[in-house]
Amino acid sequence: GDTHTPQDQYDMQSRSSGVPPPNVATRFARMHSDNKNVVTVKHTVSRSKRAELLGVDSKFHGCTVWFTGLSGAGKTTLSFAVEAELTRRGIPCYGLDGDNCRTGINKNLGFSPADRTENIRRVGEISKLFADAGVVALSSFISPYEADRQMVRELHDASDLPFMVCHVATPLDICEGRDPKGLYKRARAGEIKGFTGIDSKYEPPVAAEITIGALGEAKDACVAQVVQYLEDHGIVPGLLPEVVELFVADDFKTEVAAEAATLVQLPMSEVSMQWLQVLAEGWASPLKGFMREKEFLQALHFNAISRHNQSVPIVLPCTAEQKAAIEGKDAITLCYGGKAVAILRAPEVYNGIKEERCSRTFGLNHEGHPYVKMIHDAGDFLVGGELEVLDRITWGDGLDKFRKTPLELRAQFKEMGADAVYAFQLRNPVHNGH
């Protein structure tokens, strides 16, 4: 954050007199020029057009995350760690630090209330420009006054740009114990006057979007919390979803198997059994079962579900007769080779719209394509619902030991210390017909 140096002491002495910062309205009056010859010129390149040239997707990610807290709270450490994580994901971003800005654009400013307000105003404007360019601005400044932070928020609001305050709420005693630059020691000795947290107040954010550090959380956990907030609010795309296996826990397997024996049964084809394996092992996370109609239509029309790529529908066909037996049931049993393999909860049966499915998935609806023929040969309806799979699926062909699950592969890659993984697609259910 913006720390103090000896040459700024005279400014801090004036600040320690208790003169409050100017209010937001006064600052905004000063911010906007009265010169009638100054006219704002609009860009001819849109934000969406800029976004096409930046990052891992073509979406606009511009925003500002404003890290505020006491000196030594870990603001810059955290903001630079978030910068590293977003960069790793291919998201354009830039970390703005108080000390760095005071050696450049703000080198002529001290630490009086007026100068601190001007310091924040300038950095707020710079952050807004970064955000408007489609960059995630990660701005790390003590910014002790709530009014100053509100000023920057209003700057962004006026330009329709997302702005989030991240309060790095590390307690004063911990910050002083760290004292990485020796500033607290000098402030206690009277060498620095008006030091935030010692003899100058820090106003905690009234309604910060993110609050971290108060409980001594590890840096990685704090980074994850900030990035998760950006993901949850659609500002940056998420990574692959958490892998969720759909197998019944050993403690409940006997109970679930007994229930399966009492339910209406739906026989599955070999291809459907293969898709069941894909789902059960977590390859299609975040799916928790065969697609319901909403997920099916999302895959067809948007090639995605829950913001994750999914261009091929994972569905379970059934006939009109089977539909009549399934509808109204709370659960059904899925069978393969005469053996119960899973329970499908709250089954939803819907029209398979075969022609549209084939056309949107493969770009054609000709039965000369093997998988198109499979679709047309199957039932006219689809059934979706959440799965509870009784056992790991094996095929007894001598290759089962090579069929690692996603979690097993991740564990093996970690054990190997692999920093890159090359994946070669040799077969999947769609390609079985080729």
Radius of gyration, in Å, reads: 29 Å
Helix content, binned percent: 25-40%
Cα distance spanning the termini = 60 Å
**Tell me, what's the shape?**
elongated
Question: Tally of extended strands?
Answer: 13
The portion of residues forming beta strands comes to: 5-15%
- List the uncertain runs: 3-32
User: The biggest beta sheet, please?
Assistant: 6 strands, mixed
Number of separate helices = 17
Structural class: alpha/beta
Query: What is the averaged pLDDT score?
Result: 86
Query: Which sequence of SSEs, written as H and E, runs from N to C?
Result: HHHEHEHHEHEHHEHHEHEHEEEHEEHHEH
Provide a descriptive summary of the structure in words.
Helices cover 38% and strands 15% of the residues. It is elongated. β11 (331-336) and β12 form a beta hairpin. The protein contains 17 helices and 13 strands. α6 runs parallel beside α7 (146-158). 34% of the residues are buried. The longest helix has 20 residues, at 113-132. The strands form three sheets. Strands 6, 7, 10, 11, 12 and 13 form a six-stranded mixed beta sheet that branches.
